[in-house]
Sequence to fold (407 residues):
Amino acid sequence: MPLPLNLRIAMSSLAIHKWRAILAILGVFLGAFAFTGVQHVSKIMVRQAEMETEKLGPNLYAVMAGQMRFRRGGGVRVSGRSMNFTLGDAQAVIDGVPSVMDGTPFVSQTMQVRAKGKAVNAKLMAAWPNYQVIRNFYPSAGRFFNWKEVEDRAKVCVLGQKIAERLFDRPEEAIGQIVYLYRAGFRVLGVMENKGRDVSGEDQDEQMFLPITTYMRRASNQRWISGVFLRLSKDAGLSVVEESARAVMRARHRIEEGEDEDFSTLSPKDAIKLQQQALALMTTLGGITSSISFAVGGMGILSIMILVVRARRVEIGVRRAVGGRRQDIVRQFLFESGLMAGIGGACGVLATMLLVTVGCSLAGLPVILEPASLGLTLVGSCVLGVAAGAYPAWQAANIEILDVLKS
Fold:
């Protein structure tokens, strides 16, 4: 039979049992949508995590005071922060760890910043001038502080985009202004570029930057630091770097074998690895859900096709009586079941494409569409429909003409 005739017969048959057909199609639609949706969300989140890692800086590695714990979503929590991490420790790590191209000690603290009668909480980041290179984070207006200002303990600072907007409304107006930490005034040298959150969950636009010597001597009068950021070479082996960093720190802090360490090492890839584990769990659960939906859809197609065969016994008998072949009957019913599943699969694929395109555009996430995954889902839906329609098609092909005529 020609394809247009098969299609016309299939559509008229489905129209007779349209609500049952819609329910069967809905099951396949949900299965296709769940499968492709979860696959694409996982790929998008992994790509987003990679992009966030790039924001942290090229080949970044950190040794930090206290014990760090990763949250499920990829954020970082510090517990048991120690106060014996010194500038000497930071320099020893920079000098003693292989593959280190550059490094900067840093102090991270949350403090209130005031200017022009306004006050906001900011994440204070005190470091060396090479912080901007190590973290791949540069001013969009003005400049960063220099080495002379570090040596002179100059009371200067650089503001993140959001801090500058909250204090001065327009970031460019912040340059040259005075902001206050406690009663100490700091002259604003520049405003950093818009960076957003990094893989650790830190909003880099909510920070205020100043020379580490200025903070340690003029703002807080402290001797300890929060840690050291390292920029590694491209061919650096993380396992070797971690082993060397831990050996240097354990020796300087006189930590014996079996004693707990009072510091942590951190690579952005560690946070990404945890995110990937969470996404793998989500993908597995999504695969189970989509499999159940596909199974429900397949059972729906099977049941509706059995009903269709019973309702069309006379039609099948007449077609057989006027010369219709068994293979023609089988093809017709397989075409109808495959058509139902194909419609459901196509709708699920289109819904995924729409969700990914619109949702990612609105959320500022990378738009990723996998043609192979979408095509495989569509083909798999059609195969499911054909498999579900195999038994009803066999029943239809084996209907006896005399039995139909007698009834």
About this structure: The chain has a mean pLDDT of 82. Residues 3-51+273-406 form one domain. The first strand starts at residue 60 and ends at 65. The chain has two domains: 3-51+273-406, 83-261.
